[in-house]
Design brief:
The complex is a heterodimer of chains A (about 170) and B (about 100). Chain A has about 170 residues and is mainly α. Chain A has two domains: about 1-80, Up-down Bundle (Four Helix Bundle (Hemerythrin (Met), subunit A)); about 125-168. Chain A has helices spanning about 1-20, 25-45, 50-75, 85-110, 110-115, 120-125, 125-140, 145-165. In chain A, α1 packs antiparallel against α2 (about 25-45) and α2 (about 25-45) packs antiparallel against α3. The radius of gyration of chain A is 20 Å and the shape is globular. In chain A, about 25% of the residues are buried. In chain B, α1 packs antiparallel against α2 and α2 runs antiparallel to α3 (about 60-90). The termini of chain B are far apart. The longest helix of chain B is centred in the last third of the chain and has 31 residues, at about 60-90. Chain B has one domain: Orthogonal Bundle (Helix Hairpins). Chain B contains three helices and no strands. Chain B is an all-alpha fold and about 100 residues long. Chain B is elongated and about 55 Å long. The chains are: A mainly alpha (about 170), B mainly alpha (about 100). Chains A and B meet through α1, α2, α3, α4 and α7 of A and α1, α2 and α3 of B.
Chain lengths: ~170, ~100
């Protein structure tokens, strides 16, 4: 069952990413990126990270991508036009990305026996433990970094307001 | 049926490479910003896969912090994009060349 889940949602994620690469309109790219994030949430769940699956749906597809779509509509972004720089970018981008992919997948597959494999059934039985473990680590051991992130968010809010404000 | 962890890592490598390619190929500044989010998501998948492999919760905590920082980064970055659009009236990165000459 886990293999079927992985194949279905892995292929969905890759298809969404390729569609993201090929679409020329920013709103189409944003919507296909939402498909990638949703299928990644299912993969997180299959790896026993239920809290992160929920946070992925809420934070990434719910908050960040809505912000992106909002800015695309606010700036009335149309289809991107091909310029002189895009040819050079194709020459550098496609072979570079292919080289990175080949290197990473070679390393991962040649060391594949050391990584082991996943087992969904053992994680479903202690599904509640995952969230209690996360909360005990986050609110007890890592309380100071967790509070520092609130300051980071506050600074980000102030910076966004100052930067996006209309000039006087 | 179990899935080898290396399959998850290869899937993350596929997503990261597509993110790198679209970062280099795309000309629209909003789409370039979205491809950074795609790369962050791919790295998050490797964190969760390794957390599963070592039976440690720390990797998932790290993904949580990456999500928080990505949210803050998206807010500030989109504000910068709005400010650039106000002054340059364009979203094409080839036409934002004030420092070039």
């Amino acid at each position: 069952m886990q293999l079927a889940l992985f194949i279905i949602f892995g292929l969905l994620a890759v298809a969404g990413a390729i569609n993201f690469l090929l679409q020329r309109h920013p709103i189409n790219s944003a919507l296909s990126l939402i498909v990638v994030m949703m299928s990644l949430a299912v993969l997180y769940w299959s790896l026993g990270a239920e809290f992160l699956a929920a946070a992925q749906v809420i934070v990434y597809s719910g908050a960040i991508m809505v912000l992106f779509v909002f800015v695309v509509m606010l700036l009335n972004a149309g289809e991107e036009e091909r310029t002189h720089g895009s040819r050079a970018a194709y020459m550098a981008g496609v072979p570079g990305a292919a080289a990175i992919f080949c290197l990473l997948s070679f390393v991962f597959l040649s060391n594949g026996h050391a990584f082991g494999s996943t087992d969904l059934s053992s994680h479903l039985t202690n599904a509640v433990n995952n969230i209690s473990q996360i909360s005990s680590v986050l609110f007890r051991d890592l309380l100071l970094p967790f509070e520092v992130t609130s300051i980071l968010i506050l600074v980000a809010i102030l910076g966004a307001v100052v930067l996006a404000r209309k000039e006087q | 049926m179990t899935v080898p962890i290396s399959y998850y890592l290869v899937l993350a490598a596929v997503l990261f490479s597509i993110g790198v390619a679209s970062f280099l190929i795309k000309r629209n500044i909003i789409t370039i910003f979205m491809s950074i989010e795609l790369m962050l998501n791919a790295v998050n998948l490797t964190f969760v896969a390794f957390a599963h492999m070592w039976h440690q919760i720390t990797g998932q905590i790290f993904v949580f912090f990456v999500m928080v920082v990505a949210a803050a980064e998206a807010a500030v970055g989109l504000a910068i994009i709005i400010a650039i659009f106000r002054t340059r009236r364009t979203l094409n990165v080839d036409q934002v060349n004030l420092l070039k000459n």
